[in-house]
């Protein structure tokens, strides 16, 4: 029990000893005690740490005491030595004081002599400075006099150089204050005077350069026009050589002896500007002058961009653009020759401002211009203006885009003018074949548009296959192409052939073709006039290739590109369709005239007692009219059109004859009337065969002749005159002999066929077997078509036989496959 506390203390001391070792090591190494303190508080033993720190302090105090005891003797010796040094210092001070007193006594006399010498040196210095001052003043006076002379003679640059020399080298070194003050006061006055004089000269130059800007612009635009004309002549020679090469003629090349110097320097005086700029640079106010120049030129530009409302733009556009061209030609020269006066950004700013104003002016004026020629004149000059300034590095694309945006309006106006011209041409045309009496007329109206059929000059007078409106219309189209090329040339598009082709198609289709169609549909045309219009359209169709070729030449497009299969004008196909419309109108006129003659069929005795020996009267009138019609068509129309006219007329006659049998006004006819119609058809067929041979159509159209156009009426008459009319029900016979006839029509017409009872259905005693057989056959034909129309049409590979059982009213269809 007595030893328990002792053991407990020992353990605590051992624990505290561990902390002491760590603490001593950390203090010895100079480490931070923070972790140890934190650890002691975390372990709940701060008193142990405090105890250990106190022990460390005690140990360090013991070490300090031991160190002081060890070096005590050395401190005593050091204090003694310091006291000895202090005594030596007092001795040295006493000796220095005595030596100083002796030195002052010896040097007093020498100091008096030195003062006298220094006074003499000062006098000499003053005299020398006075001489130097006089020299400087004399030099400054001479420079001032020279400066005054230069200013009086307007030689400002040497005057400024003198002023600069005075300021830098003499003004601060001038010893005379009064003179320096006067000079310092006069230098700014002289510079201000020079600045005013230079500005006055510069202002005069500004007025002068603005007054001659229009002349400069006109001269430059004239050079651009000359260059353009030279290019056009070269292209014309190139087209001529290409045409000669295509025709097999070796082209002749010639050296162009006339050469237009496109780089001719425009002469105008910029010396006053250079001088003003240089003087202001010497004055150190270059930026001020540059700003002054830019602002004044900007004001001048704004004045130049104003449009006078008192004068039409057509008259004022050339001076307007020439003035602007001259302005920017001057600015371009200033930019390239005077360094630092103008910057590219300033010139671009001026150009952008002018471009914006010019675009708005051109757009506004174009919107109020209603004449194509006026638009072309303005556009032509604007493109010359653009070409002129583009040679000086200015971007003119936005202005050309305005012109391109106006091309639709220009062409609409041009088309409107062409529409009026073509309308007047067609109105004044009599649509008679053109008679050419002189060779120059032939060349002007035929050769110039490649309308000749051969290269041989015909005998005069020459009757052309077209009327006078064709060459007149061709001249309008050619003028349209030239005007369109003039507008589209030198614009924003390099290749404008496709654009021209589109507008050319529009002219040919929407203007020329529509005018012709209007004449066809609304005009009160005779047969010869309708024929001539059809012939004219055929000629105009051929001219499409010529106009496309001319457009390609003017656009400098290789002709082999134009000759490609699908490179032609759409108008060519449209004219082809319009020919059909003209032929249809012609046929309508012919049909109307034929209807007048066919109306005479009403005078036929359809129940005559005797069969006529000759044709009826109406057919004579028809043959005479057809003879005149085909003769006229043979002179005017090509064979293909002649064939269409003949076929159409004969088809109409045949259809009208059949329609007469079907008409409700014809209630009954007999066999004698059919014999009369047969005589009519024979006469008409003979005429058709003769004209088909004499016109040369037998070689041109072998598949269908004029006689074939009468096939329906001929087969109908043959059927009605047949002894076995019921053969019509036999598919083989019908296909061979009556293929053009219709079931319903045959049924209707057969119902109207009523022979006289005395002749056909007399007493049983005098009726022969032949008449009885024909009557039965006709009765069968009358009954069967009514039933057969209820069946389907025969297919190409089968025949349908219909058998009627009249008592049972039933139908059996037997279908046999054809072999």
UniProtKB/TrEMBL annotation:
An individual GO BP term: Golgi to plasma membrane transport
Domain Exocyst complex subunit EXOC6/Sec15 C-terminal: 398-752
Comp. bias intervals (Basic and acidic residues): 229-245, 776-790
Record's subcellular location: Cytoplasm, Cytosol
InterPro entries assigned: EXOC6/Sec15 (IPR007225), EXOC6/Sec15_C (IPR046361), EXOC6/Sec15_C_dom1 (IPR042045), EXOC6_Sec15_N (IPR048359), EXOC6PINT-1/Sec15/Tip20_C_dom2 (IPR042044)
Region annotation Disordered: where it falls in the sequence: 227-248, 761-790
Predominant place of localization: cytoplasm
Keyword Ligase: no
Transport as UniProt keyword: yes
Keywords: Coiled coil, Cytoplasm, Exocytosis, Transport
Domain Exocyst complex component EXOC6/Sec15 N-terminal: 52-221
Any Gene Ontology CC annotation: cytosol
Physiological role: Component of the exocyst complex involved in the docking of exocytic vesicles with fusion sites on the plasma membrane during regulated or polarized secretion. Involved in polarized cell growth and organ morphogenesis. During cytokinesis, involved in cell plate initiation, cell plate maturation and formation of new primary cell wall.
Protein family membership: Belongs to the SEC15 family.
Name listed for the protein in its UniProt record: Exocyst complex component
Organism: Musa troglodytarum (fe'i banana)
